[in-house]
Amino acid sequence: MAKIAKILAREILDSRGHPTIETTIYLDTGHSGTASVPSGASSARHEAVESRDNDPRRFQGLGVIKAIDLINRTLSAKLKGIDPARQTELDQFLINEDGTADKSNFGANTLLSISQAAVVASAAYYQLPVYQYLRQKYYQQVPLNRLPGPTFNIINGGAHGAGNLDFQEFHLIPSARFTYSQSLQIGETVYQSLFKTLKYRRAITSVGDEGGFAPDLFTNLDALSIILESLKQTPYQLAKDVFLGLDVAADYFYRNGHYEIKDRAQPYSREELIVYYRELVKEFHLFSLEDGLNQDDWTGWGQLNAALGSQCLIVGDDLLSTNPDRVKQAIAKKACNAVLIKPNQIGTITETLKVINLCREAGWKIIVSHRSGETNDTFIADFAVGTLADYTKFGAPVRGERVVKYNRLSAIAAELKL
């Protein structure tokens, strides 16, 4: 049995140039594990709270020195001697020490950096890749015979884009009949075709936080139409080889009880927006619809799932915030049929696994996701494979902090010969 000898945290930058926490757990056996935590640009109201210094003299108040000091000066000593493989016990200790429901005392980023590093350190001690360690510890009875299917974010809007598109993400999802390496090639091919189409239309402005294009387009329909135009320049057919998806992030354009998007002059009511989504699902063969309504509209979510849940995935992200209590409520209300998993929304690996298990028991699809402010940590790729997720959402097939995760999945696919 290995024991924690020391924990050392430091401040690093994420992909948006904001500070975040990188933590290394050193074991008395000489093994170690390092984890760095991401951060979201569009954080849900029900997410666990991050620790930030709020000191305007450093990084616009976004520094994490307080969290670093807490880990190095206090939590390291308190966790010394604990077996990191006793994940539930370790995480519960962190939760109890924090003492708040939303992790606002220590911060979810503080807790997750330790919780995640414990997994990596334990995997190193047992001489296993992280994905194999997770699977053997939690899902040994389930065969590992496939990798999660990639969801490529190829156009960024909303809080992730240039501010001109209402919907936050426009996704490309290869058919499940393809291998992972084939799916990666499809994603890259369509992405490059989209670049050429946008360039031809003189609509390119930049790329968003997650590597998708942030083009000079006016409506969400424009974005969907230009993706279809780009597909025609590739060997792949819509609804056969590839499907489209949307992360609507409806809270971004929810105002005074209505939804204001540029696709029409008048605001949409909840019922009108659901009708509009039905039209989009039919016309563009949408495979998934994420955060289609306000994150506190439980009645509306039930209506949305009843209307479209048999035709596409109704994915809860902001609605659920990787929170077991909200997931239980969503299951009872039949509010969706898929979950987006983001460990930093809840703060510990144990709680994240609890959410995955609840959703799987309910028959939901599991989508493991990055955040807009990412690091070069590849843990989330191993986590998706080790927990037998159905899909991943790691952004576009560009930008180092995104590509490193796709490349990790490629390495795992080669190891498993999948």
From TrEMBL:
It catalyses: (2R)-2-phosphoglycerate = phosphoenolpyruvate + H2O. Residues 32-42 have a biased composition (Polar residues). Its EC number is 4.2.1.11. Keywords: Cytoplasm, Glycolysis, Lyase, Magnesium, Metal-binding, Pyruvate, Secreted. One of its GO terms (biological process) is glycolytic process. Its cofactor is Mg(2+). GO terms for molecular function: magnesium ion binding; phosphopyruvate hydratase activity. Pfam families: Enolase_C, Enolase_N. InterPro entries: Enolase, Enolase-like_C_sf, Enolase-like_N, Enolase_C, Enolase_CS, Enolase_N. This is Enolase. It comes from Candidatus Beckwithbacteria bacterium CG1_02_47_37.
